[in-house]
Amino acid sequence: MAEHTRVSDVRTASYEADPEQVRRVLLLYSGGLDTSVMLKWIQDEYDAEVVALTVNLGQPGEDYEVVRGKALRLGALDCKVVDAREEFAREYIVPAIKANALYGGGYPLFTALGRPLIAKLAVEAAREFECDTIAHGCTGKGNDQVRIEATIATLAPELQVIAPVRSWRMGREEEIAYAREHGIPVKGGTEVAPYSIDDNLWGRSSEGRWIEDLACAPEDDVFQLVTRPEEAPDEAEEVSVEFARGVPVALNGERLDLVELIERAGEIGARHGVGIVDHIEDRIVGLKVRDIYEAPAAAILLTAHQELEKLVCTIHQNQTKPELDRRWAYLVYAGLWWEPLRGDLDAYMERVNEQVTGTIALKLYKGGARVVRRESSNAVYDAALAGFGESGGLFSQQASPGFIELWSLQSRMAWRLRARDGER
Ligand code: ARG
Predict the structure, then answer these.
(1) N or C: which end of the chain has fewer CB within 10 A?
(2) Is 284 in the pocket of ligand 1 (CB under 6 A)?
(3) What is the position in ligand 1's atom list of the atom closest to the CA of 333?
């Protein structure tokens, strides 16, 4: 075996596998080139058995039978396919909606939300199949390795981890050569490296190629989910989202299961070019990286949720919650899903969201999603108070001058002192 493909015996962390102790490996398998090469490579290099696990988080257009067949053909003892869409929606996306979760002002965290669930399912499958080690296909440059390994080390300290892509030092050409040599099908042309894609119900990210050149504006072929805004319909479309206690329950008046609701919101948004984000991101591992995100469902549901929350919360809640929302998003981005602080924050999010019931309508048009209608029986709003008419008894406009006198008191005093000093 060539030098560059040898198993790494440098171990920094306690959970990294001792090659001697690797007998049966649970491989997180996507069916792509990296994890297919890994499936073979682990069998050869470690002389170990491999069980594959493929997790369905709602990746559009994936054929899981094909993925499973491929794993078995490459020598996996078994390939378990788990449909985790419902759990992902209920236990991961809903808390994110309640926390209006956006990292860095634009990234709705779909990958960051998916990783702890995928890793948790890997732990469960590893135990079921009596594996001693979990293998994943993350590189050493990204956040995903952090999210996956932090989850495994937290939930299953008895399991070891290997991350071949991080250690094998094969370049793309060598990987393709390895694949050819071992009868692993290589999709598409081999001259141009494909984008690095990750997707699920909540969105899709693309990295690599021209995206790494900050001077390059997006090339059309990157958008595989959302219609480019300039090609979106000339007719605007209104979409209404009903929430019950912070959870979306109906779209355009039609009650839907959560997964279907998210999928439908995504389709409507995608048609109108909604949810494209060209993002420079501060990764936890130090780097700044550019990502192209397509997250039409999140663009609609987060916008609607945030708007409704604003309507039912007081000014004080509205001042405070965004700060905690930001903390929540950072913890999740940073791979600390299992950190108790998230639970603490979730309790707060839950409490606020008890009031978040009502309907928000957005108008979608060529990439924009603008709120046009709001309705909630919990709105801290009274048209009679807000309007120009009488104030209806809750307060007297005659009280306003007294309020203004006290409200401005310190500012007026400070102003006077500065005026006095300026005169000297
Ligand atoms: N930058 C995003 C994040 O850190 C997206 C990562 C996408 N992952 C991938 N393996 N392509 O969550």
Answers:
(1) C
(2) no
(3) 12
Taking the C-alpha atoms of residue 266 and residue 112, their distance in angstroms, rounded to an integer, is 19
CA distance 256 to 239: 14
Give CATH for domain 3-193: 3.40.50.620
How far does residue 14's CA lie from ligand 1's centre (Å)? 25
Average pLDDT on 2-25 reads 83
Tokens of 418: 């500065």
Options 3.40.50.2300, 3.60.20.10, 3.90.1260.10, 1.10.101.10; CATH for 198-313+355-375 is 3.90.1260.10
Query: Is 30 near ligand 1, meaning CB less than 6 Å away?
Result: no
Per residue in 382-408, pLDDT (tens digit) is: 888 887 666 666 788 899 999 999 999
**From 34, 199, 291, 325, the catalytic residue:** 34
State pLDDT tens for residues 63-91. Answer: 999 999 999 999 999 999 999 999 999 99
| Every domain of the chain and the residues it spans | 3-193, 198-313+355-375, 384-420
CB 99 within 8 A of CB 328: yes
- With a threshold of 0.90, does the pTM exceed it? yes
Amino acid at 379: A
Residue 78 designated active-site: no
For the ranges 61-65, 148-152, 336-340, 385-389, the lowest mean pLDDT is seen at 385-389
Going from the Cα of 12 to the center of ligand 1, the distance in angstroms, rounded, reads: 24
